[in-house]
């Protein structure tokens, strides 16, 4: 248990303290007790920067289940550290924000902070685990705690719906990922990520598990990162409190999928399928998200779709970056730009999207609504919030002087350069990449402008607002101010990040492009000269402004595409699954014993007949048969006639007497086959049971006309089938005698060992007395059962 | 000689049982059927005793006694049922 383990688990451990603190310090906001933890963790993780800067990594192992190769191994490398810093850093800001956002008198703060800490610990575990099983464990813990956080206001229907939806989708993906992990283990023989990365691509690409593992891992990543078409849970997750949305659904959890894709790029990256899936789905998500964000009227809805779209953008960049693995020529950073852009935009997105969510939270908090149709003209009431939203939204739109501009330029660069790749037929299809990226950027620009200008400018509509708007308290503004200043600082000093954070992260994503001593040279600058990218940005700006201003005129485009199309698909799928299974269950579970017996017997026939046929089990040998005597024939005829007549007689009484006749004939058979004890018992028991049957039937309600058993063809077929099968099996079994009987032992030892001459009785009470004991028990239970049934029924009647 | 006699007797008893069964099925009233069943029981006693001779064993003599008892109990029970409508009286006092 090293300090690193303690650091990762500390949020989880700290959850124990939360209820105590909440109970005993009611007049202090619980958040204040939580806040030091993420701050401390942030500063602790910053100390690792000096280590990862040189592309080194620190690993610590804690034995958990060593016999299965599952150990709590943590590894801090460039990629993990980047995420750890995002989680703890933004976590601190979100905790601070939540202290002012959530009311300590009206909200259940203890549960909120327990879930938040659970989530933080789980997320740290995801990004720092080196063991895939441990990673999966933390992965599910993030789904789990996110489920709780979305459903925090559990008395609202929509919260519960959103929580359930996100749970179903992310857990579905998580389980797929588990499948992928197991396949990876089967390929590499280890659960350790760093060990499996040592075996590079060519070793495993021919493995038949490679493609399924790739798809399963990607399914896990896509569902978590809200990629198309699994993006549907994210907009519904906006029912969560705004700090949760800011933390989980913009900066951390939805990037777990990004993390996973980045982490596995060295393993799968060179395969064309990885490139096409990751970048293709990414671009599709980018376009679909930005396209749909424009139509939203809820501020958080806009941000949700924008998150989807930005995640798609990062995803597509990672996919394009993976193509760079095909080129081992590292002197030229030509193809590396996509990966750099992905990492850089990941950081940028966390900063501006976090601040935007907080801004929206402030607007919601201070006006009581998030609907842009009700908002407007808030600029004069909330100047600071307005400024913050301008910074965030312009950065999101990709305008200078904000960090989004840098990453968007690099995004364009990466997408343009893909046409130079002479891979995967990109010469012909490559042009699609920059075009889609550009169109999506136009939409991004439009919704960013909607977000700012529909909220803060225009007509002030006080009659539609619940409260009189005013500026937020300073505590609520600190966190977005910190994030917004980061947005600007990163634009002016991007190289602060490039060597310390971004380059080590890239070296983890693309490790085999480096030799031992090399390091990536990442240089980010705002000015590239008059390049294609710059003109593309200017084009975005011009067309975006034009479309934003004429928005009312082309709005009807959206009526062509149904709103929430994929959500409807999801709803319908659930409904169909539910109704379908209900119908299916009703179909065969019809409550009639007759049909269950039909299934049982049909299955019995089918499986035994199939076994007989497949194994060629039927065998007929006539050697060991005894001679047939005249009395046996007569008795058999009596039994056959008796049984068959019992089926066709009209009265119940007759069939009982016929059954009795059959039973007595069986006892005669025992006499013939020399089993006096059996014959004795059979006679007595047959008498008793016939008497019991008569008793039952005497008390049956009288029907007017007793009917014959109705004739049904399936019953006939099945009964004949059972008879035939059992007969065939009996014949075959009798024809294959593998061993001699053990009866000789009893014959020889009955008197010598057990001092008895009646062999049957000696077997029953001496050689195999255990069976007898439990048969006695069975009879006792039956007797007690009958007694209680009669007694209880009587006493029940008295009560009524 | 003895064996032939046993076989002939068995056949005779079998025939009488068949005739008795006819009476059981046909028998216009219930007492007819009960008497017929009782007679079948006694015939079975003889039948099994003969079979024991045929099989040269004394192991089945218990069964003849048992059938005798069962036939008696059965007949008495039926008689009581026909007379009183119940078999086991409820203790009412």
Strand arrangement within the widest β-sheet of chain A reads 1-2
Strand content of chain B: under 5%
Sheet with most strands of chain B: none
Q: What overall geometry of chain A do the principal axes of the alpha carbons give?
A: elongated
Largest sheet of chain A, described in full?
A: 2 strands, antiparallel
How many H/I helices of chain A? Answer: 36
Mean pLDDT figure of chain B: 84
Distance between the termini of chain A: 67 Å
Question: What does the overall shape of chain B look like?
Answer: flat
Number of strands of chain A: 2
Multimeric organization: heterodimer
Tell me the fraction of residues in β-strands of chain A, as a range. under 5%
Alpha-carbon distance between the two ends of chain B: 63 Å
List the chains of the largest interface with their residue counts: A-B, 17 and 18 residues
Total DSSP E strands of chain B: 0
Order of helices and strands of chain B: HHH
Structural class of chain B: mainly alpha
Count every helix of chain B, treating DSSP H or I runs of 4 or more residues as helices. Answer: 3
Helix content of chain B: over 70%
Task: Indicate the percent of residues in helices of chain A.
Answer: over 70%
Rg value of chain B: 17 Å
Strands, helices and their partners?
The complex is a heterodimer of chains A (800) and B (93).
Chain A (H helix, E strand, L loop, with lengths): L2 H12 L2 H8 L6 H4 L1 H11 L2 H4 L5 E8 L4 E7 L1 H24 L7 H20 L3 H19 L6 H32 L4 H6 L2 H4 L5 H15 L8 H4 L5 H10 L4 H13 L3 H22 L5 H25 L13 H31 L15 H15 L5 H15 L8 H4 L2 H25 L17 H19 L2 H15 L22 H18 L1 H4 L2 H4 L4 H24 L4 H22 L15 H19 L3 H21 L3 H24 L13 H23 L7 H12 L4 H9 L1 H31 L1
Antiparallel strand pairs in A: 1-2
Chain B lengths: L1 H25 L3 H26 L5 H24 L9
Helix pairs in contact in B: 1-2, 2-3
